[in-house]
Amino acid sequence: MTGGPTRRDLLRIGVFATLSAPAARARPVHEPVPDGRPHHLTFVPDGFALDGQPFQIRAGELHPVRIPRSCWRQRIQMVRAMGLNTVSVYIMWNVVEPQPGRFVFDDRGDISAFLELCRAEGMWVYLRPGPYVCAEWDLGGLPAWLLYEGDVRLRTTDPAFLSPASRYIALIASLVAPYMASNGGPILMLQVENEYASFGHDRTYLEAIATCWRSNGIEGPFSIADGLPQLRAAGTTLHDVAVGLDGETAPPGTLSPGGPVWISEAYPGWLTHWGDKSMARVDFESDFRTILKRNLSFSLYVAHGGTNFGFGAGANAGHDGGRFQPVVTSYDYDAPITENGHPSAKYQSMRAMLAGVTGRPSRPLPELSRASDFQPVMARHGGDPRLAFGRAVSSDIPQSLETALHQPHGIGRYTCMLPAGPAATLHLGAVHDVASVFLDQTDIGTVSRVWREGQPPHPDTSIAIPARAHPARLEVLIDSFGHIGYGPALGDRKGLLGPVMLGDMPVTGWKIQGLSLDEADVARLRALPETTPRAGLVLFRADVHLETVADIYVDLGTWPRGYAWVNGHLLGRYWSMGPQRRLFCPAEFWRQGSNDIMLLDWHATDPHSISGFADAGDA
Question: Catalytic residues (predicted)?
Fold first, then answer.
């Protein structure tokens, strides 16, 4: 298959196959919790020891940035009530450093506050700060501003990458040092990079990352995480560093001197892409029973997935960038804890199994969030979003949004004049990711890079252009999805990349504008006066009155494709191709009384109704 299957394709086949021979070992009884005193996790031949006693890491992954901040404590409590003793935590570099040198640790990016809650709730932490994390997150957590200048070689010792990565690590190290277990905090172990063997084989790069942590006062213990075939092929283990295996395992002590083997990602669920037939569903009970029977340390990826609010959703692709598959807005992941923080049947089953093997009674469940709905409301037209685009940049040829505008996400607008002439074929070249094409304001077609089963890995990006008696204005609007976040195609730039040809003639003389849909852009969109819409990008508004606030799923299944905001909060993307139809809006985004819903849609011209439901529905 062109592009080749990704590791995530392969992991769906025979997950945990090497676990089929259970081994009976004594169940560890050492279960201390963070108490403000120093504790020390060390490596032993068959796993881990805490303060010199055998210790099983039973972790569940949570991503603070995907969880409403007001819900952090409840989600941590749900993980503990399940019978787990550790929270595995990603830090997304692009969230905490949105611009070079400008660090932001507020709202869902306040990692210190999250670590404090873990300590208060008696949970250890396995910290995974990257700098690369994957996580189906935009660019795998790397900041898109790394792509602004030149051909930076991501995840290498290239100074254009390693210098800002070292700056990031230095700051994170200063924040998390007080939270290391050796200093009385909850962090037992820290991960060096993530799934590097699926990308490269330069051990010196991994050593440079580990050295950077140590030079900034974090002495470990450390772990890596990767797929077993990739790890063996690349040989990127490190001495005295634990080996975390994702989706499979091997007999302990066989992969790296001085480091035990454990399961860094066990998959109770799976991700979903736009265009999949349904939301992912995984039967994990048998695999989980095997893990528990062998008394292996493990981390559930994920215990609770949450939501790809804003522009968090990333994308997957083949090795050559073909088969581009963006991730849906929901990161429910068929995890034990649902997107809105409730226990699933899978949660109850796994909770019972954990209680059985640990001999510890299950802790009571925390209070669950209240869910509500609202009756259908009719949307109305908003202003003309084209009026909100930024200043134009002139370029002889099309350029990426990152290069031309230093814009990391959102919408691009590319305009030029085509000469008078006969009908011809317009070849757009590389389109990242969906292009809506207009000639003198007439819609002449759409080109999409998004791959679906049965399609060729790379799309045909040509469009028929009618005959023109006079010069005509060409407008190409680009909807950019998340950056590829996994594998060799990491680092794709967004926009109209070209080369653009009219027949065999290059098309030149472009004006490039952007709409990043950041807070300033959203404020401008909300302030636009209502107007008769133009085809191709239409703004809609709706008012919802609520007597009380609660979690609500906003149903946009009848709307074609676009972005949805509630009271200025970007819920994420919707798309009628599915499988997701409803977007989760947590209680903290709503207000008692009047609420403003805003949609920016690529195809709708007439208003539709919008409904609210108490659950995600069937997809």
Answer: 195 (proton donor), 265 (nucleophile)
